[in-house]
Amino acid sequence: MSNTIKSETAHEAQKARRFSIHRRRVKLQNTPPKNVIFKLADTPDELSQACRLLYESYTQVGYMKEDGSGYRFTPFYVLPSCYTLIAKQGDTVIGTTTIIIKSLEELPVEQIFSLKHIQRWNRRIAEASSLTIHPDYRSQDGALIHALLKYMFQVAREDLGIHDLVMASTPKHMVFYEALLLFRRLSEEVIDAFDYVNGTTATGAYLNFTEMHQDYAAMYKDAPDEQNVFKYYMEYEFSNFQSLSKVTSAYNGNRWRPEHLDHFLHGPIQGANSLTREDLDLLRRHYPSHDYDKIFARHSLSNAAALIDTNATGVIQSSTGNKTPIILRRIEEDRIHLTSERPYELLEGKELQLLHQNQQVEPIRVQSITLTGGLDATARYDPTSSPGIMALLTNKQRISPLEEETTSKAQNYQEDELAHVG
């Protein structure tokens, strides 16, 4: 028993020394890369370039098999709950990453790791995925990858209100995230084959944004500026970071117009070839209006029951006036999926009130509430009592915005190696 404790202590000490070496090697700048704009990919050309860049990078390192398409495409790239971010120089996309907000469907990382121990009824979880840098723009000091990560953190925290950012990475690359960015392991387990990236070995980790400021300040309080991750990620402001303009309590990160969605599914990318029947059905439900009928008719999908993913706040009020705080996770035409700290109090609920800037708006008559496990519940509601919700489901309007290494030598990770992770 004592030998086991000594071995674990020695391992932790070794890891701490290794991480310390990594932190001393980092070189950060107080300005962003010149002539590079960081933004949401909101045009077909930008997303197409990102998919092509991912294909080239992922096939090079074995994260994807060559299939002749020239593009990496997953259903997440066109789901409204996914935000594809890019670094762009002139008209060229030179780096990209995505933020996939947790909804009722599993995140890619959930194929291999459980998130139950970090999930809370009122916290938002998202996955960082599909990170890559164009080979012509990789440098030894990692300026572009640090700027892209800083931008992703800023968008996730400030624009999307994410509390926990999860990710999967190879064990080799995970050292970077643990040592410098203070990610915490979801599990000490190493997965032999992660199908999402062609069976690559993977580890999982998460970053708690609500503790990020305090943790970074404590870790880097005495670090010089070029090694001060706290100053770089928490204090420096970069003027070439574009805030998102489309964020609402109903996510619409990549809600594309009919001609654009058709371009991704049936145009040069031929994205539909990468999708399962279930993927297509989910897309149809997120794009339910008749404007998209022709696109999905090619796959014999029509008359979809609409849904929207959301993280809107609200309360359920009982007939006695008791109010229970809730978070709406998904809205459908006949039911609302929600979470609550005290779900058992919802059973007598009669009315759902959305909250917007501390104001009550548009009460919704509740017909019944079913507890579905843990902190989750489903409320059946009367659609005629909420024309605003029905208009939203039919895309006629949007909800208003809501506020292995030695102890003496650490692995010398290069920007080129860190250019495609997650």
Key terms for this structure?
single chain; 422 residues; alpha+beta; nine-stranded mixed β-sheet; six-stranded antiparallel barrel; 10 helices; globular; disordered C terminus
Describe how the helices and strands are arranged.
Blueprint (H helix, E strand, L loop, with lengths): L1 H24 L11 E4 L3 H18 L20 E8 L2 E10 L23 E9 L9 H17 L4 E6 L1 H9 L4 E2 L5 E4 L5 E9 H12 L8 H7 L22 H9 L10 H10 L6 H5 L9 E12 L4 E10 L2 E5 L9 E8 L2 E15 L2 E6 L5 H7 L26 E2 L1
Parallel strand pairs: 4-5
Antiparallel strand pairs: 1-2, 2-3, 3-4, 4-15, 5-8, 6-8, 7-8, 9-10, 9-12, 10-11, 11-14, 12-13, 13-14
Major sheet, described briefly?
Answer: 9 strands, mixed
Mean pLDDT: 86
Q: How much helix is in the residues?
A: 25-40%
Oligomer: single chain
The count of β-strands is 15
Report strand %. 25-35%
Task: Calculate the terminal CA-CA distance, rounded to whole Å.
Answer: 37 Å
Number of DSSP helices? 10
Coarse structural class? alpha+beta
